[in-house]
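Record filed below.
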Amino acid sequence: MKPSHIEHIGIAVKSLEETIPFYEDVLGLKCHKIEEVPDQMVKTAFFHLGQVKIELLEPTSPQSPIAKFIEKRGPGLHHIALAVKDVDSDLEEMKHKGVRLIDERSRKGAEDLDIGFIHPGSTFGVLLELCGGGHE
């Protein structure tokens, strides 16, 4: 596995409506896309910052992983996403190396990317997401 760059940084928020103005009015970034990902029970908002994107994640259900994260830890940094060529092959390689995975196979995420999460218990406390395919 060899990531090419940080694809995005995921930040859990209680409300996109309340959070987006900070990124636009204070930081001067432009929200270029808002998208709901029903199977992950989130609504996302994306901002470009150089080659990296910032992804704000608002839960759409109290059962969503983001809602549970916010309930336990409060809003804030949720994950770092790494761009890779083949999510499935990299997940398989990591599994063979004894890395604990959340996803053993890729699934579709925001922006039509193939995604897979690596458990923070294997990454020294950082939730990592592998992203590939889709469009940029």
Remarks:
- Residues 16-26 form the longest helix (11 residues).
- The two ends are 20 Å apart (CA to CA).
- Residues 38 and 114 are 15 Å apart (CA to CA).
